[in-house]
Amino acid sequence: MEQPNLSYIHSMSGGDKLFEEKLINILKDEFPNERKIYYQNYKSNNFKLAAENVHKLKHKISILGLEKSYEIAVAFENNLLEGNTNLGQEFESILISITNYLEKL
After folding, report:
1. Within a domain: 94
2. 45 in a structural domain
C-alpha cells in the first residue's frame, strides 16, 4: 500500500516552511473529526452522508500524495451513493494509514 507523504505540500509551498506547517496543522486538526463523523454515518448505514464525508476526506488523501488511494476514495464515494459498501475495507485501511502518519508528524 502506498504511504502518505508531504511531496504535494512541499511542491505547493515553494519552500515556505510556515505555509507547510500551517497546512500540516490544518490536516492534523480536521482529519480526526472528519474521520469520526464518517465512521458514525457509515456505521449508522447513512450512506449518503458517509459519501459526503468521503468527499471531504478524499481531498486530504490527495494532499498527502496518495494517488491510488484517492482513486479508491472516488469509487467508494460513488458506491456509497448507490448504497453499496464495496471498497469499505480498502477505505478504512487508507484512513488508518493517514491516522498513523499524522500522529507521527
Report:
1. yes
2. yes
